[in-house]
Fold:
Amino acid sequence: TQLLEQSPQFLSIQEGENLTVYCNSSSVFSSLQWYRQEPGEGPVLLVTVVTGGEVKKLKRLTFQFGDARKDSSLHITAAQPGDTGLYLCAGGTGNQFYFGTGTSLTVIP
Amino acid sequence: GAVVSQHPSWVICKSGTSVKIECRSLDFQATTMFWYRQFPKQSLMLMATSNEGSKATYEQGVEKDKFLINHASLTLSTLTVTSAHPEDSSFYICSARVGAPYEQYFGPGTRLTVT
Structure:
């Protein structure tokens, strides 16, 4: 059972546009991670958020953890072709990790 | 820090043979590692949790006799696909759990093709 739903599932945008990816659940998580994965490689950890309402920025990427710690969003400003990849959220609770359904992003030059 | 390696990065084998994939934590000790399977443009499917010095915990629907996991040391976990069939062809990824709150660091993955 997928506890974390991501939307959109697929996204294709032009270079320079902004976008937001959502990660939603009915469950509360003690922490939430975002990963980016390129084809043929393992996922790379981008950020971990642990406090409800927390906002973290990583260059052009802004991550937010929902107040109730059930959802999160990833906003990319002025997307670049190098941002292309599969974005995965993962919620942690106790000793378990639950991965989201994934968002495949393509940024067209 | 927190570097995880996998070997081999890709392997082609014949149907009926067995394949072993290694997952190593290079600069830290990992009491818990995870094995995932992934299909193109899809999310990760957890297969099993590998615990150092004890039996692995398999997810529902994963055959433990087919996917043998051994976590004999704090830096090495292995996944052996026994009697491989074409439907076992996939991208297999391992990860190690680190820190508190826990984060996962992933290996680069192994592409298995069974002919």
Remarks:
- Chain A has no helices and eleven strands.
